[in-house]
Amino acid sequence: MRPDILNPLFAEVTALKGVGPGLARPLERLGLARVVDLLFHLPSGWIDRIERDELMMADAGRTVSIVLTAQSHRSSAGRGPTRVQATDALGNYVSLVYFGGGSGWAKKVLPVGEPRRVSGRLEMYGQELQIVHPDYVGDPADPDGPAAREAVYPLTEGITSRRLGALVAQALARAPELPEWIEPSLLAKHGWPGWREAIVRVHADPADTVARTRLAYDEVFANQLALTIVRADQRKRRGRALAGDGRLRDALSLPYALTGAQARTVAEIEGDLAQQAPMLRLLQGDVGAGKTLVAALAMLTAVEAGAQAAMLAPTEILARQHLDSLRRLFAGLPIEVAALTGRDKGRVREGVLMGLADGSIDVLVGTHAIFQEAVAYRDLGLVVVDEQHRFGVAQRLLLQDKAHKPPHLLAMTATPIPRTLTLANYGEMDVSRLDEMPPGRQPIETRVVSEDRLDELVGALGRHLTEGKQAYWVCPLVEESETSDMAAAEARAAALQMRFGDAQDGSGVGLVHGRMKPLEKDAVMAAFSSGRIGVLVATTVIEVGVDVPNATLIVIEHADRFGLAQLHQLRGRVGRGPGRSVCVLVRSAALTETARARLTLMRETNDGFRIAEEDLRLRGAGELLGTRQSGEATSKLVTPELLTELIVPANQDARLLIDRDGGLAQPRGQAARAALYLFERDAGVAMLRSG
Questions:
Q1: CB 65, CB 49: distance < 8 Å
Q2: Closest to 380 measured CA to CA, from 392, 394, 366, 391
Q3: What pLDDT does 35 receive?
Q4: Where along the chain do the CATH 1.10.150 domains lie?
Q5: What pTM was computed for the model?
Q6: Chain-centre distance of CA 675, in angstroms?
Q7: Around 330, how many Cα atoms within 13 Å sit in the side-chain half-sphere?
Q8: Could you tell me if 73 and 89 are in contact, meaning their C-beta atoms sit under 8 angstroms apart?
Q9: Is 358 helix (H, G, I), strand (E, B) or coil?
């Protein structure tokens, strides 16, 4: 159960004074459903006010706070501006300007002849001073007048920064003093305040970097502690050792020898499988590095030991492709491979379920359907999760319920992850990297062209098709939108079909996108794979897994709108055969500096790990986990820069707490338990509940 001391923070925002249904709606749009959400909705900036007794032209461009007296009101016709002529204590004039028909309101808050404290940005208009829409007008004696520094919050329509600040003040009043969870020497080294003092200081002074860093550390620490608990829990569990005899692997006919990285990783996995403690290993490999072969060898080891293996893929397309590739690889071996996805019904589904239960199916490939309650395995020993970044910690552990003993877990991703984020999100796992390419894999040539050269590009595509080769054409949207100028897949497919025809004899144009029904998508993909379609126009549904060696050209429209990691994944759809492959990045006429840097890097390198590190540096805090894990808490307080600075000490502190400081049973551990609940690190909390 959540500690009682935290309950006031997890109350709905409607428990706060003045929050009714009308105000709750804009708060909900900002993701502020509970009091704790308000606490963690940190200011994005601030307003510095200078208090003045008299108006000075030298203050133009600054926000001032000054006592003024209205002398007259003048309203324009219709919805023109209302101007209030006011004077300071020395008789200097300033115009207070309101747009949008505010004359009645202006007369109410600024009655002629009565002094009022006014705050706003002082500006020069010709030779006169003016303040447009003062941000504060009130009694000069009011002790709650405008602060010298006022926080500015991220907003949405229907709420002002000041109104949000008032709600944050109510939330802060509910914030309790919490026992300290940070290791004392680390706390002293950085001079960090306690948790409550830090959260109060950040909202009072958004420039307080010491307090902000303390809060960012708390979030990173809670995440690392949750992952450390998961790791420790896994290490304590008694699974089953899977030591194969080599008969299936020896009989496997491979087209080429393993790379050094593959051989090293296979040895690491075999060592893990031979232990009773369940394996928890993340396999990172750039596009084309041979992860599937490594996973296949691991599954053969499990089958040799008398167990079953299951492979989880994020999409039906990828699951079907894995099924085909494993059946080809295992051809001639006494192994039964089957698939189970959401579209499998009736007799097909029943046959798979029976085969799993009686053990006649050795390897199952599927989507989330393999989690379902009706799916029972005779002896599940190994789970392989492909495209790991699509699944969260909780999902990584769900399949444990499908085995008599906790199965071994091998998670794979073709999305290169910066070392910082690897530790941040997979701290409970051992990590293997495939950093070599198999022999014959050609580097992909990357070119950047402006969108005004599209006609030339279509002509080059025609020449490409006449040579018997195939191509991808990627667009960001499915259909045209009045609010966007981005290319749409449907419109692009229609334009290319007018030039090259529909799906026919290897030169026509097909279309695939995420809104299509699975059977329709599969039919188009099958036609492209078999060569009946020459050009596949697609959205990013083809980002992972599609493998067509004859496709040696990929065109990505509005490439400057994509992130680096996504561009690298899309580029990896080509370069899968022995011939030279080209990736053409079509850019907008006007580029931001960040977009220009991204495209330059893509042209310079095919190294996914270098691209991942640079992507983290270029991205803003809002995109921190661009490959965000489904179903997990997202980062609220930590920026990429702070994550890089804090991840190692947070990881060390979490391990110190579990290994040396008595775990969660001792006083610091009890405090850390509160941190887990405060930051909703569900995986760790779940382990606490079961422990």
A1: yes
A2: 366
A3: 96
A4: 1-44+153-176
A5: 0.65
A6: 22
A7: 25
A8: no
A9: helix
Pairing of strands 45-52, 63-75: parallel
pLDDT at 191: 96
User: What number of CA atoms fall less than 13 Å from residue 526's CA on the CB side?
Assistant: 9
Residues of the chain with pLDDT under 50: 482-483, 620-633, 688-691
| DSSP 8-state class, residue 113 | T
pLDDT of residue 456: 93
Is the domain spanning 48-150 CATH 3.40.190.10? The answer is no
Radius of gyration (Cα) for the chain, nearest Å? 31
Q: Which CATH code fits 445-605?
A: 3.40.50.300
Residue for token pair 């599609």: 546
CATH of 1-44+153-176, one of 3.30.450, 1.10.150, 1.10.10, 1.10.287: 1.10.150
Please report the pLDDT score of residue 438 as a whole number. Answer: 74
Least Cα distance to 684 among 153, 225, 25 occurs for 225
Residue range(s) occupied by CATH 3.40.50.300 in the chain: 247-434, 445-605
pLDDT tens digits, residue range 276-321? 988 888 898 877 788 889 999 999 999 999 999 999 888 787 888 8
CATH topology of domain 247-434: Rossmann fold (3.40.50)
Identify the pLDDT of residue 606: 86
**DSSP at 30:** T
| DSSP 3-state of 426 | coil
Q: For 634-640, which contacts have Cβ atoms below 8 Å and span 24 or more sequence positions?
A: 635/219, 636/40, 636/42, 636/219, 636/679, 637/40, 637/42, 637/212, 637/215, 637/216, 637/218, 637/219, 638/216, 638/219, 638/220, 639/216, 640/420, 640/616
